[in-house]
Amino acid sequence: MSSIVVQFLNGLAGASTLFLIAVGLSLIFGVTRIVNFAHGSLYMLGIYIAYSAVGAFGAAGALGFWGAILAAALAVGLFGALVEVLILRRIYQAPELFQLLATFALVLMVKDFVLWAWGPEDLLGPRAPGLDGAVAILGQRFPEYDLFMIAVGPVVLGLLWLLLNRTRWGTLVRAATQDREMVGALGVNQKWLFTGVFALGAFLAGLGGALQVPREPAQLFLDLTAIADAFVIVVVGGMGSIPGAFLAALIIGEVKAFCIGLGNVTLLGVEVSFSKLTLVIEFIVMAIVLVVRPWGLLGRPQAAQRAAPTHIEPPLRAALRGLAAGAAVLALALAALPLTGAAYTVVLMTDILIFALFAASLHFIMGPAGMVSFGHAAYFGLGAYGAGLVLLRAGAPMEVALAAGPLAAALGAAVFGWFCVRLAGVYFAMLTLAFAQIGWSVVFQWDSFTGGSNGLVGVWPAAWLSSKSAFYLFVLVLCGAGLAALRRILFSPFGYALRAGRDSPLRCDAIGIDIKRLQWAAFTLVGAFAGTAGALYAFSKGSLSPDLMAIPRSVDALVMVLLGGVQTLAGPAVGAAAFTWLQDTIARNTEYWQSLLGATILIIVLAFPQGIVGSLARLGTRAEAE
Amino acid sequence: MSAVLAVERLSKAFGGVQAVQGVSFALGEGELLAMIGPNGAGKTTCFNMVNGQLAPDSGSVRIGGVDTVGRPPREIWRMGVGRTFQITATFASMTVRENVQMALISHRRRLASLWTRAASLYRDEADRLLERVGIREQAERACSVLAYGDLKRVELAVALANEPRLLLMDEPTAGMAPKERITLMELVGEIVRERRIAVLYTEHDMDVVFGHADRVIVLDRGRLIASGTGDEVRDNPEVRQVYLGSRGRA
Fold first, then answer.
1. Domain map of chain B by residue range?
2. Which of A257, A293, B86, B131 sits at a 20 to 30 Å CA gap from B42?
3. What is the pLDDT of residue A126?
4. First-to-last CA distance in chain B?
């Protein structure tokens, strides 16, 4: 009994932190319509800055400690304001996808900055002066600091309520959440309103992070863990609803605490480790909420959105004869590559082909079907693990294992996709990311089956493919066929129907097209293609690790597609080639590849939104016109 | 002969507001029925309950004798109901012809086909429909660059693709120039008479209502207050009061 009470209190303490992160995300989205993927990074920045600040002023006793916490949160708020003024202001009119990517570029850059400034080791701060003891609750010791944390959530909720309901600024924020244009028409300077809200959201995330200093070590992966949690809470509570965020934070906080508290339990003769299942349980909670209330517990249905008229793509045109001949020549040239004896080039080209298929599979749902997935690597990883596990654990031959990869990926995509297609736009992106993060943690934590963080080794192809050249030709045939099939499907009734669903769901419904079902089918189908790429990748490297399905890899795929141009069909392949080659060249020379990648994303988003192929095509039409 | 569309005692409330209250009407083959009323009369609510976008609180909607309450719009379409929207809804990234082909592909249940080329399916049939609505020469153009009046014609061609027996048109001439309105409604009139299609449409423009409808029903504050030919409705004192705010004058 007493342990249940303590678990309950633990849950409340955790919920406060979750609430601080999620509420800022929700506020920012409400006013600016931007889903800030960097919100977890702001939280992580809060912990690190607070760690250093406490180190600097902590000696001055309680005042120094609390001053340091507040200063860290303010610093993060200031950083948020800077980001809003320098970057976000330029992209409020851009398509949703670009906004999401720009904030993701921040994730990458903040991570490298933290790595550069604080190094890769975990850093645990000192205890809070005055709250470093424990109290006895029903005979169990409970940290005083956690009691303090329990109070933080409701206090912040109350202060926010006062701010939003009792001040002029708060009234403007609420008005802008409901109707931005009207607020603008009434003569309110929206620029500073947006900056203010972003700074407030950043401050809250920073505070959430800073307050964690005495509780958990500062770690480099906290950004993605925090953002996945925040997305789950926002989806469960309802986007834009502050009480919803609070309620959902309570539920998720409690669920997590009880899972950790349960520890290892034997169910029906099988030992289940609940403490490792926290993310899976979160997923189940979220799934139930999504089925019962698709807009979250206290959320409201999303208003129908019309595509901005400037971003409509031109109709598909069949390839010119010249292009088809060009593709044939390219295929022959690629097939002749091993004859040159350039061993390193063969390995690099193998990578490029695999990523071309991976990127094309993402492009298929993201471009024509209009579903921007931020977790596509989940299916790449499932394919790799599916193949690797069947090979190593079941002892199947390589050919069977290779077929198992796409099957596993399609199965995973079918399950996750069933939930994802119920949502659209940014909600879809958030949910795909959350699912990918869940998949990653399962693989990462399941030591006995997936090899945990070490991954699996010895995933080698069959003897007839053991030479690099033979494997390269094998990949060329499979990926070439995959790319051709995806292209063919785009021109089929199925592909057309997906584009129809992106252009006008209303019209689809009025001509008998069950668009959700088709989207689900498409999600599953591209899962199989991504899984094929993943399985091939595993065999080309001989090993696999959880990194294969981590969020950064999903973003790699997004960047490949954007680099090539999302509105072109050849784009993903060109983008994959350019990206893989760049990464290979640059990553060998620097530790900070990720921030370079982030900077590249920002440049694409701000300067070349149409990508390589798109920009070339535009140059072509301009030249023709002259 | 059973009515193509029979609406009986349809009601819907939003919170405490009774948006539609006990509305009944019927519509036969080849008949054009206009639904009019001032803002907030319940036209759109009523219309959306017929097309399946909204579920009524009570009452029934029968199409060809079959109750459609609870069915989603896409199923109602499969029962032979074509629709056009107040603000046109077309596929902007497709050509005019492809828009019609999409509807034909769906009608013939070829949506799950992964290997055929969509652009070569039912091409002639799509062109015949475009010919009928007078925009055959624009077949290759992208919908995104079309003039608004032409988009309305695309919608009409799309709505005809499943050989409907009932056409639901929500403010078919909204946003068009006065001259265009008349030509479009004349075209609709010709087509529905030659194909014996029943049409229910909502309208603000009185010229369009009285010049083209066979019958008019008038809603006010959720209730049906008058029904009859254009002239009968025009002379109805209650209708005059609703529209002109005074009884008997004007």
1. 1-80+164-250, 92-163
2. A293
3. 84
4. 40
